Amino acid sequence: MTKALTTQNPNDYENIILGGGRKLVNPQGPLAISLEGINAAQIAVPPPPALASAERAAEAVELYWQALLRDVPLSKLQNNTDNPKVLAAVEDLNKLSAFRDPKQNGRVTPQTLFRGRFKSHSLIFGVLGVLSIRLRESYDSHSHCTPPPAPPLSKGRGDKA
Description:
Elements: H1 2-7, H2 10-14, H3 54-68, H4 84-94, H5 119-141
């Protein structure tokens, strides 16, 4: 296997001996490159914090708050929010010295809450936040409309109505 990894010769991968009569399934898959978008080899993921570290504990606290706030609309993750759970999460995360996610002026705010360290997280939350606000505004402006009645349930073959 070391020879195949070093030479990256397709025939060397085919010659890797496994126990029994099994062969490797797609052994060169990790060597593939993407012809669209970013190549996986260009993405670097930093190592996770140590298990017994304050940073890992801060990440766990953030995940618990994400679970508690999963039903809160993204439009409530704004600095002018009055949502008590969002404000409690912000207060709690600001107490953690090892919390490394984005902050404004050194403090977690409702607007920086759950934004992640990577630009993609901020982009996703930003887009979702705008969409949720627009959808909510659209829904509120059409609240006078009533949906059409549901069609009657059809019975299966041979059933009498």
